[in-house]
Amino acid sequence: MAAMNSSDTKPERRRRGRRSPLASVALVLTGLLITGGAYALMSAAAPANASVDLSSAQSIQQGKKLFAANCATCHGLDLAGSSSGPSLIGVGAAAVDFQVGTGRMPLAQDAPQAEVKPRVFDETQTLQMAAYVASISPGPGIPASSNLTLTGDATKGAELFRINCAMCHNVAGAGGALTEGKYAPNLMNTTPAHIYEAMLTGPQNMPVFNDQNITPQEKQDIITALKTQNKDAGVGGFELGSLGPVAEGLFIWIFGLGAVVAFTVWLTAKGH
């Protein structure tokens, strides 16, 4: 009897000592959640550009190293340019932040226009290169956060956009085709800072809208109008890409007239 009790308890002890496979999975998932949450909190608490002073010698020196390794081949270390890239003298920090911050630079391939793509450098590195370029030759600076608050007059901004920008970017900011394979990009997903910098620097085919042409307040009005329009839901049926009367006319021509022709053919066949 005692022997039976002793042999019966051994398997029971083994079963009690064994960990369930589900417990292992739950432990791993808990660890991943804790690690990911901690990383997210640390990232949110320390923005990339918080420690970047564009006028500090350290930022300029770091920017010079990054520029020499990645940009000087085309633009020259003295920013004078070459046969492979234009001069950067006078473009200022705003142009660097726009071109590098949107991934247009470094250029991926020779094309009619620099494409938007995932950025190669993080925000700190971008600002350090901007600091170096600005230290060599002054130019338009990165806009102050007070000009990017989206508290402008959206009605006035929409009017200014129609007068100055809609002929290329479309009245809805959806972009449009230009000549020789170039195009005006869609502005819906562009950040307020990059829109402001594009107006300041006139990248590629875009004209320069300096503070004398369009004041800082008017720039903020335009950005407010674009972002307000981006938030509003489309009304009146299909948006058709928000490309205006050309797209709408093409839709009616193809589908509307096509339906009329198809109905006419059906009636004729039925009559026969």
TrEMBL record:
It is found in: Cell membrane. The keyword Chloroplast does not apply. SUPFAM superfamilies: Cytochrome c. Its EC number is 7.1.1.8. It is a multi-pass membrane protein. PANTHER family: CBB3-TYPE CYTOCHROME C OXIDASE SUBUNIT FIXP, CYTOCHROME BC1 COMPLEX CYTOCHROME C SUBUNIT. This is Cytochrome bc1 complex cytochrome c subunit. The lineage of its organism: Bacteria, Bacillati, Actinomycetota, Actinomycetes, Micrococcales.
